[in-house]
Amino acid sequence: MSVSPAEVAVVPDTAMPHARLVGVTRVFSRRGKGEDIHALGPIDLDLKRGEFFSVVGPSGCGKSTLLDVLAGLATPTSGTAEFEGRPIAGVPAGVGAVFQEDASFPWLSVTDNVAFGLRRAGVDPAEIARRVDYAIGFMGLRGFADAYPAQLSGGMRQRVCIARTLVMQPRLILLDEPFGALDAQTRLLMGDELLRMWRETGATVLLITHALDEAAMLADRVGVMSARPGVFIDIVATGWDAERDSRIVSHPRFGDLTGHLWERLRVESLKHLREG
Amino acid sequence: MRSALGSAVVVLVLLVVWEGLHLAVSNSGLPSPVATLVRLGVLLGDADFWRQAGETGRAFAAAVVLSTFAGIGLGILLGMNRTTGAVAQPILVNLYALPKVTLYPVVLLIFGLGISARIAFGIMHGMIPLTLFTMNAILNMKPVYRRSAAVMGLTPWQSSFYVVLPAILPEVITGARLGVSLCLLGVLIGEMFAARNGLGFVVMQAMERGDMPSVLAVALLLAVLALVVNAALLALDRAWRR
Amino acid sequence: MTREGWIRLLVIAAAVAALELACRLGWVPVTVVIPPSAMAASLVDILASGKHWADIVISLRSVAIAAVLSIGLGFLVGAVIHAWPLVRGAVEPLLASYYAVPTFMFYPVFIILFGVGPAAIVAIAVLLAIVSMISATLVGLDRIPLVLRKTARMMHMGPASRALLIGLPAALPHLFTGVKLAVAYAFIGVIASEFILSGAGMGYAIAYAYNNFDNREMYGLMLLIILVVTVVNTGLDAVDRRLQARLRR
Ligand SMILES: Nc1ncnc2c1ncn2[C@@H]1O[C@H](COP(=O)(O)OP(=O)(O)OP(=O)(O)O)[C@@H](O)[C@H]1O
Ligand SMILES: [Mg+2]
């Protein structure tokens, strides 16, 4: 099999994990003002290239902290984090993130928001226009291209952020409860769009969610985290094929899957509720 | 505690800058901090100074009491109704931003040259922020508070006293903090222009004599007093918000 | 215009009409207040005769200089204090009480430092106005959402472009509140200093007219100041409201 040099850089070895965390922990020091907060870990995780991985866990267990480590926004207190074989130091090229909080820029229109990163990267204007237009259509924002975030609903603003990340064509996409502001039905439909995008781009996706059905439907594997400090207490392979969509919620195995996830999570969530 | 230490350091730095200016300007008349404090000591031992201070104190106290009651009362009245609030808001904001000193002659023409003009002028300054803050606090109060009170079976009077009042109090205290400071400013400006009494008058006289140590001694005294009163109200404000 | 806007206009018009009537019927002696129509006529005369143009120019120039200085310096000082938590902890408690200090009393100090004339008055106005800009800058920089900083880092932006393209627009609504207050205080500082302490400018002209029992001229000048300040404030307010509506989240 002949491989062109450009592809060698991006696809060096399919056996090697796309991103790898080994013994990663994160402790927030409070400098004498009370006990340090052990927020996360130790975490061991291999993300395979092109897989769709979902993370579920009780509130405050360290999911967003895990995302910060993978995005290069936070350094692990101990352990190592790698992306494409190199240790993560600063934000690696090829990683995109959509955060839990609304990160749309209120002073820019939807179009300018989505184009922001591409313009910073000095991409050719015609190419920018093409990609932005596609992403806006893809995210169902067609009629709002010239609107400002203040005029949009919370769910639409989150879609602006997703579009802004997608146009950069990242190889690893990190999503932190991107559909948190949506109703359950729209959520499923957005999930379908996400699956379509994932298949088209071949990117690796890590999706943090608190909706078990969303995790079970979208992911190849679902990681279940314990209460803080969050560690993976179970990693469940869903076994769906790549061509799945939201209709699998009526598949007989789907109920078993979410049932199993809830069984693992129930105890941990109770812990969170009791300890606060 | 650490911030108190830091503030002390800032005050020390200001004193050093003052001393530096005194040395830089040399004999052209800017007194040193020490000379100012010595003069303040002399003034504090002077019976006439205390009479003038008493005059300022009386006008200030009257203005504070009257503007507090009038300001809160008017604020509540305007805040009871969305429309009156929306109508009054920009007018009050504009009054707040207006250089009210230009209106002082009107006050003098109405009240004459006595203490009542200074009191009225102090009220003009102090009342507006209180009215504005009280009104906004009532208008911005979450409607769900009042509805919850009604659901829990409180009478309107009970709900005013146990729900509305505690809900708006922090804002009212903030308004009072501004109002008290501005009352003092109004009274002093009044005394500096066309008066024969009060600390403002003392300062104006000293200015005319070119008696800089006295000017700075009185200014310093008033600045420290204003800071202390304001810091006390700030502490009250914080304690309540907690 | 909104319904409230019309009611407001009506209330103001009614108040002016009532004053006019009270003056015309002799309920209020003309030695105290002159009818609003006479104030307006006096204002027209003042502007047409050009008698006070020099005063108007002096005052407005002082206000403009004081406003620009306090906005610029206030922003700089605010940004430096914000980047320096130790200094901030020390300065902030003083800032909160600062406006309580009767600034006007320090006028003689500025005369010694800057000499007699507009510079001392500008200094007083700056002293009065700068603190609201410093406080607004601190608030604005504090309120830049953490998630926007994270987003900027995800886009590999350097510190300079981060500050310029993310920090500044995100802080803008708060900064503008500071601008609005700084302009208002610049007006108050300049006019009040002129009124009590100086020998030129619109504030002085009013005091002069009062001392010479020239009520007509005095009320004309008062009306002028009130109109100018109201127009400036209303304009800034309109910009402010648009900024808040679009940018505040
Ligand atoms: N900057 C910080 N300083 C101190 N503690 C922090 C900080 N960030 C997070 N924490 C703590 O770390 C823990 C994990 O936080 P994290 O945001 O990762 O949780 P999460 O799983 O994303 O929660 P949620 O589901 O509510 O979003 C929490 O207890 C939180 O209080
Ligand atoms: Mg989170």
Automatic annotation (TrEMBL), chain A:
Keywords: ATP-binding, Nucleotide-binding, Transport. SMART domains: AAA. One of its GO terms (molecular function) is ATP binding. It comes from the Bacteria. SUPFAM superfamilies: P-loop containing nucleoside triphosphate hydrolases (SSF52540). PROSITE patterns: ABC_TRANSPORTER_1, ABC_TRANSPORTER_2. Pfam families: ABC_tran (PF00005). PANTHER family: ALIPHATIC SULFONATES IMPORT ATP-BINDING PROTEIN SSUB (PTHR42788:SF13), TAURINE IMPORT ATP-BINDING PROTEIN-RELATED (PTHR42788). Belongs to the ABC transporter superfamily. This is ATP-binding cassette domain-containing protein. It comes from Rhodoplanes serenus.
TrEMBL record, chain B:
It is a multi-pass membrane protein. The keyword Cell membrane applies. The keyword Glycoprotein does not apply. Keywords: Cell membrane, Membrane, Transmembrane, Transmembrane helix, Transport. Its main location: membrane. Pfam families: BPD_transp_1. InterPro entries: MetI-like (IPR000515), MetI-like_sf (IPR035906). Residues 53-233 form the ABC transmembrane type-1 domain. One of its GO terms (biological process) is transmembrane transport. PANTHER family: ABC TRANSPORTER PERMEASE PROTEIN MJ0413-RELATED, ALKANE SULFONATE ABC TRANSPORTER-RELATED, MEMBRANE SUBUNIT. Belongs to the binding-protein-dependent transport system permease family. This is ABC transporter permease subunit. It comes from Rhodoplanes serenus.
UniProtKB/TrEMBL annotation, chain C:
Keywords: Cell membrane, Membrane, Transmembrane, Transmembrane helix, Transport. It holds the Pfam family BPD_transp_1. The keyword Ribosomal protein does not apply. InterPro entries: MetI-like (IPR000515), MetI-like_sf (IPR035906). GO terms for cellular component: plasma membrane. CDD domains: TM_PBP2 (cd06261). It is a multi-pass membrane protein. It is found in: Cell membrane. GO terms for biological process: transmembrane transport. Residues 56-240 form the ABC transmembrane type-1 domain. Its main location: membrane. The chain crosses the membrane at residues 32-50, 62-84, 96-114, 121-139, 159-176, 183-206, 218-239. Belongs to the binding-protein-dependent transport system permease family. This is ABC transporter permease subunit. The lineage of its organism: Bacteria, Pseudomonadati, Pseudomonadota, Alphaproteobacteria, Hyphomicrobiales.
